[in-house]
């Protein structure tokens, strides 16, 4: 059995899911994949089931009843992984904004170094984003700066969603106490790992915006991140924040 599991949440990713699965399985290191699909009406889950016939030992599917949010998808995936013997558990998007080749770099940062969390970072060595309009690049960059300022975390890309966790990190965090369901989930997970004093390392990656399918970003997600971070920090100061 592989010691590393890549969790990929999907909702209407029929244009990307087969290619991302094949790319991960073509890597030199052995990764298993767990697709967490929110009942995609475009047949994403059905395509994964077809591919399971080809990859019966390494490809898994967790089907949910509907679109329940990115954070809950990852939490479901984390719990699934912790019920098994995986030592390294990854978050990765289905749309190729995260380069599958970088999985090995994140893995090495945790397996060969002293880090317990490795982040595929867009901003640790400048701004490494391709195909985003300037307004979105600026919004994302400023959001990470804002979160870093409010929380005190020494992390340049606080909203990154390309991550490797060592098993011990997810075992220590109370996953039932994660509050956020949108992209602020990524901030909250990093903040909890930071409060628990796990060593976090940023690995520079190039983020390339999707060329197929539609983005899931919304104003509600941005609002959750902006206002939720302040609440999260204040609760931690007054010891009301459950890790």
TrEMBL record:
Q: Which family does it belong to?
A: Belongs to the glycosyltransferase 2 family.
UniProt key word Transferase: yes
**Which is a Pfam family this sequence falls into?**
Glycos_transf_2
Source species of the chain: Aquimarina gracilis
Residue intervals of the Glycosyltransferase 2-like domain: 6-173
List keywords of the entry alphabetically: Glycosyltransferase, Transferase
Would the keyword Transferase turn up in this protein's UniProt record? yes
Per its record, how is this protein called by name? Answer: Polyprenol monophosphomannose synthase
Q: Check the record and name the InterPro entries matching this protein.
A: DPM1-like, Glyco_trans_2-like, Nucleotide-diphossugar_trans
The lineage is: Bacteria, Pseudomonadati, Bacteroidota, Flavobacteriia, Flavobacteriales
């Amino acid at each position: 059995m592989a010691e590393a599991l890549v969790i990929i949440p999907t909702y209407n990713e029929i244009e990307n899911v087969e290619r991302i699965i094949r790319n991960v399985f073509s890597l030199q290191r052995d990764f298993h994949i767990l697709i967490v699909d929110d009942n995609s009406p475009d047949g994403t889950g059905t395509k994964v089931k077809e591919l399971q016939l080809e990859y019966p030992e390494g490809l898994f599917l967790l089907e949910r009843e509907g679109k329940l949010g990115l954070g809950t998808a990852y939490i479901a995936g984390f719990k699934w992984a912790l019920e098994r013997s995986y030592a390294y558990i990854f978050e990765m998007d289905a749309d190729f904004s995260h380069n599958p080749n970088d999985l090995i770099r994140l893995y090495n940062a945790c397996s060969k170094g002293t880090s317990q969390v490795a982040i595929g970072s867009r901003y640790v060595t400048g701004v490494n984003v391709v195909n985003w309009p300037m307004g979105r690049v600026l919004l994302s960059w400023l959001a990470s700066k804002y979160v870093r300022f409010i929380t005190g975390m020494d992390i340049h890309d606080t909203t990154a969603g390309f991550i490797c966790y060592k098993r011990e990190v997810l075992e220590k965090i109370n996953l039932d106490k994660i509050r956020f369901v949108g992209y602020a989930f990524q901030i909250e997970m990093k903040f909890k790992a930071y409060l628990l004093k796990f060593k976090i390392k940023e690995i520079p990656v190039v983020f390339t915006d999707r060329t197929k399918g539609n983005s899931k970003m919304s104003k509600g997600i941005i609002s959750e991140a902006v206002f939720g971070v302040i609440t999260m920090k204040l609760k931690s100061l007054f010891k009301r924040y459950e890790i």
